[in-house]
């Protein structure tokens, strides 16, 4: 691909993941004469919500991968490069290859950064010696290899002290592992520990209560305020910082297998940019998705400061708000669309069982179906495994709207 030293697009989108493609597709579908460029380095695009199912041995990893080129909307220019820095005062983005791209409007949605290195010893042993993680395409199948070959002992599942992609995912694989161990006849000689840096099982009270009942039913030990900081592969020890009474103590737990949810953060080029707030996330209004300093910049998705779950379902609800507000700004009209914080987390609680946790900014349930959302259902398993991937590839990424009675957003 030829590198151009200077480019201009009416709208530049940083990031070609779920958020970037959805916004580009919706913009193109709404107004055909827009000049749009997407900056995205990867030639592959992944449906990451299925990686928990891959790790549980019930979904093929290859089915979560497509070529990025197939997903770029017609008429949108794909700039295959890394975004390196922002110069918002000059309406300019500089790429790693030193291409200077100017814009009239900017949409920033590069996703989240996986900070594997913040857990000492993890990178060296990941995918082997009983250590696994579903948070990478090449690692999720290894999770299943470790689970299906587990012969008993201590299985640990962790949750870090940072925001992460899909807050329910660390426990989804735990519930699948529990059932796999039972089918393999090793559950009676195993203990399962959920070691979370948080203070409870889930951040939305309406769903936390039934989840605690599931944890108790499955005889899983919940250990709160446990933040994993190191793994010693040679002795199979997990080292945690445990907060107790305003002090932090180091606790060592032996494991036979451990599924690690790594710390995550906004990408470094976001943290170090004028677009970031003090916590490193892109500083946007939580209702309009417009930047709080630079009015011609918008953001959505995992790298934004929006105080909601970092999921594809949240992006699905954020994108139409952003698109309509951006078009209003371009037409010198008021930004009237508001995002209510809707997010959805299909909590897989076993094979054939899902609790569809939907909620808003106020942590109130926001169900799309006339059913009790706190109940485990086979129908929601079918939605998780078959319905949502279809909607993702064939509706969301093509800029097509969803019917409210089918799925909110």
List keywords for this structure.
disordered C terminus, globular, 7-stranded mixed beta sheet, FAD/NAD(P)-binding domain, 409 residues
Characterize this entry briefly.
The chain is an alpha/beta fold and 409 residues long. The protein is 25% helix and 26% strand.
Main β sheet profile: 7 strands, mixed
Distance between the termini: 36 Å
CATH architecture of the largest domain: 3-Layer(bba) Sandwich
Can you count the beta strands? 21
Helix fraction by DSSP (H/I, runs of at least 4): 25-40%
Low-confidence stretches: 403-409
Number of domains: 2
Number of helices: 10
Please give the structural blueprint.
Blueprint: E1 6-14, H1 18-30, E2 36-39, E3 44-46, H2 51-55, E4 65-67, H3 68-71, E5 77-79, E6 83-87, E7 92-95, E8 100-108, E9 113-114, H4 122-125, E10 131-132, H5 140-148, E11 153-159, H6 169-183, E12 190-196, H7 205-217, E13 220-223, E14 226-232, E15 237-244, E16 247-254, E17 257-259, E18 264-265, H8 268-271, E19 297-299, H9 312-330, E20 343-350, E21 353-359, H10 378-394
Overview of the structural elements:
The chain is α/β, with parallel strands linked by helices and 409 residues long. It folds into two domains: 6-112 and 266-343, FAD/NAD(P)-binding domain, CATH 3.50.50.60; 115-264, FAD/NAD(P)-binding domain, CATH 3.50.50.60. It is 25% helix and 26% strand. It contains ten helices and 21 strands. Strands 1, 2, 5, 6, 7, 8 and 19 form a seven-stranded mixed beta sheet that branches. Helix 7 (205-217) links the parallel strand 12 (190-196) and strand 13 (220-223). Helix 1 crosses helix 9 (312-330).
């Amino acid at each position: 691909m030829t590198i151009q030293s200077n480019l201009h697009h009416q709208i530049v989108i940083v990031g070609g993941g779920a958020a970037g493609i959805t916004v580009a597709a919706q913009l193109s579908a709404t107004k055909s004469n827009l000049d749009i460029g997407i900056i995205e380095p990867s030639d592959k695009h992944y449906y990451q919500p299925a990686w928990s199912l891959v790790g549980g041995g019930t979904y093929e990893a290859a089915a979560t991968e497509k070529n990025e080129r197939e997903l770029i909307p017609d008429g949108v220019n794909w700039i295959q490069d890394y975004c390196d820095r922002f110069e918002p005062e000059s309406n300019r983005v500089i790429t790693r290859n030193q291409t200077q791209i100017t814009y009239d409007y900017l949409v920033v949605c590069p996703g989240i950064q996986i900070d594997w290195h913040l857990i000492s010893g993890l990178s060296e042993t990941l995918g082997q010696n009983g250590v696994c993680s579903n948070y990478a395409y090449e690692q999720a199948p290894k999770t299943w290899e470790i689970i299906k070959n587990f012969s008993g002992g201590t299985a640990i599942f962790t949750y870090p002290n940072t925001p992460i992609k899909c807050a329910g995912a660390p426990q989804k694989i735990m519930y699948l592992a529990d059932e796999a161990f039972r089918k393999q006849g090793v559950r009676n000689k195993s203990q399962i520990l959920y070691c979370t840096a948080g203070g409870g099982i889930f951040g939305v009270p309406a769903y936390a209560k039934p989840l605690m009942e599931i944890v108790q039913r499955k005889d899983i030990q919940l250990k709160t305020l446990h933040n994993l900081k190191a793994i010693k592969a040679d002795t199979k020890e997990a080292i945690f910082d445990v907060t107790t009474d305003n002090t932090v103590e180091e606790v060592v737990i032996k494991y036979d297998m451990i599924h690690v949810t790594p710390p995550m953060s906004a990408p470094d080029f976001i943290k170090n940019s004028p677009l970031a707030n003090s916590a490193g996330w892109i500083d946007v209004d939580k209702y309009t998705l417009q930047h709080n300093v630079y009015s011609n910049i918008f953001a959505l998705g995992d790298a934004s400061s929006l105080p909601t779950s970092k999921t594809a379902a949240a992006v699905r609800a954020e994108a139409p708000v952003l698109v309509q507000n951006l078009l209003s700004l371009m037409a010198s009209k008021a930004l009237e669309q508001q995002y209510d914080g809707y997010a959805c987390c299909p909590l897989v609680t076993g094979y054939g069982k899902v609790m569809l946790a939907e909620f808003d900014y106020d942590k109130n349930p926001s169900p799309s179906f006339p059913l009790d959302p706190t109940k485990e259902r086979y129908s929601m398993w079918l939605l998780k495994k078959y319905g949502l991937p279809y909607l993702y590839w064939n509706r969301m990424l093509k800029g097509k709207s969803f019917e409210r009675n089918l799925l909110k957003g």
